[in-house]
Amino acid sequence: MRIVLVVGALPNFMKVAPILTAFRSRRAAEVRLVHTGQHYGANMSDAFFGDLGLPKPDLNLEVGSGSHAEQTANIMITFEKVCVRERPDWVIVVGDVNSTLACAITAKKLGIRVAHVEAGLRSGDTSMPEEINRLCTDAISDLLFTTDTIANDNLIKEGAVPERIQFVGNTMIDTLLTHIDRARSLPLPKGLDQRRYAVLTLHRPTNVDSKLPLERILESIIEIAKHVPVAFPIHPRTHRKLIEFGVFDLLERQTAVYVMQPLSYLPFLGLVAHSSMVLTDSGGIQEETTVLGIPCVTIRPNTERPITCLIGTNVLVDNNPECIRDAALGALKRGHAKAVIPEKWDGHAGERIVHIMLKEKAAVR
User: Fold this and answer.
1) In 219-243, which positions are buried (b, 16+ CB within 10 angstroms) versus exposed (e)?
2) With a cut of 50, which residues of the chain have pLDDT below it?
3) Which pLDDT tens digit goes with each residue over 274-306?
4) Which CATH superfamily, name and number, covers 2-170+345-364?
5) Is the CATH number 3.40.50.2000 carried by domain 179-334?
C-alpha cells in the first residue's frame, strides 16, 4: 500500500508524527511525507521536525503564502503532480488548514481515496476559513478519523455513512504524552518561575486583523499582567499587525509582559506545562491544557473542540476586556485541576489509525 501523508501548517506536524511512527513500526506500507510549505519558515519547520523526531519530508512543495484562493489553488496545482507521479492508494490529510482541503480535493478528483484525521470538529461558524475547510474535506473523505464522540455526532447529523466514521482518539495528545517529560525538563525563559506566569497566544484574524479587537484584547492582557506575568510568544501575523496599528511599543513597555519570538514544539510545550494559566485563540492548545489540567481561557465566541469545555479546563470568552480579565482572574483563583483524559486520548490514536488502514488494505485484496 502506498500512502501520501500531508502536512501544511506547523500544528499538522504534531498530528502526523504518531501516524508516521506507527506506519514505520509496522513496515506494512510505503509512506511518503509531503510538506506543502503552507507555513514556510524554514528555521521553525526544521525545529519542529527535530523536536518531534520526524524525518525530513520526502517532498516540500514550497507553496508559501497568498490569499486563501491563491494558496489553495497553488497547493492543488502542485500536489496534483505529486499524486500523478506517486500514484498512492491513499492520501491522509490532517486538521483544517488550506493544505487539508486542497490536497483532499485534488486526490479525490484523481480517484485516490482520502482519509481525514480530526474529522467532525465543528465550531458552527462559517466565517472561519477553517470551518469551511473541515466541512468540505469531511464531505468527500472516504475515512473519517474522529477525536471524540461529539465529532461522530456532527458527522452523522451531516449525513456521513457510519461505516466511514472511525473514532480513534487524538494524535496530538499522542505526541504530547510522548514528549511531555522532555518538554518539562527544558529551562524556562529568563524571569519566569514555574506556576507563576500565564501564557498568551494570539493569531486569529478576527482577533488581530482589525485594530479595535486587538486593542481591546491588549487592554485586558495589561490588566491581567498586574496580577501575574504573561509570557507572549508572538505569532508573525500578530507582530505585523501590532506594528501596523502602532501599538507594539505599548506592549513592549509592560514589564510584566514577556514578548518573545515564536517557540518550537518542545520549548512551547514546556512553557505551557509549567504555567499557571493559558490565554489563547488556538485550537490545539485547548486540548493540551485539558490533558495537563491547566486553566485555559479561549478568546473566541465559539470552539470546534467543545469537549474541552464540557469535561476539561477550557472557558470560552469573547474579546470584551472585562470578560477576559474576569475569566482569567477566575481561572487563576481556581488553579490547576486534575488532568482529565477524554476517551481514547491515551497515546495510541496513531496506532489505531494505522491498524484501520491496514485492515482496509486487506479488505481490498
Assistant:
1) bbbbbbbeebbbbbbbbeebbebbe
2) 365
3) 999 999 999 999 999 999 999 999 999 999 999
4) Glycogen Phosphorylase B; (3.40.50.2000)
5) yes
